[in-house]
Amino acid sequence: MLPQHESDRATQRLQEAVTGFVDSPQRSVEEADALFADLAARFADSLTERRRALRASWHGHDGNGDGNAATEELRNALRDYRDLTERLLRL
């Protein structure tokens, strides 16, 4: 869900927290906590944006839905919901 460079940076931050534990346990745990909070917020924001985009693809850009989505748009939306949900279930 994150761009590769951000995922790499988060991995680096976690590794730094782990390797710094011996010298500064409190700081290491605080860094791990901050990293987790950052990633959880990014993940939630990403999911919210992805849902908004998926919903707009079949429900209308205003969110009201006019019932006029073509079958192909609905099929694509269902496929995208399925793929994203399956990815979430594998976490």
Name the descriptors.
single chain, 91 residues
What can you tell me about this protein's structure?
Helix 1 (4-19) packs antiparallel against helix 2 and helix 2 packs antiparallel against helix 3 (71-89). Helices cover 77% and strands 0% of the residues. The radius of gyration is 19 Å and the shape is rod-shaped. The protein has 91 residues and is mainly alpha-helical. It has three helices and no strands.
Brief characterization of the structure:
The chain has 91 residues and is mainly α. Helices cover 77% and strands 0% of the residues.
Beta fraction of the residues?
Answer: under 5%
Which residues sit in consecutive blocks of at least 5 with pLDDT less than 50? none
**H/E element sequence:** HHH
Largest sheet: none
Protein structure class: mainly alpha
Give the total of beta strands.
0
Overall pLDDT, averaged? 90
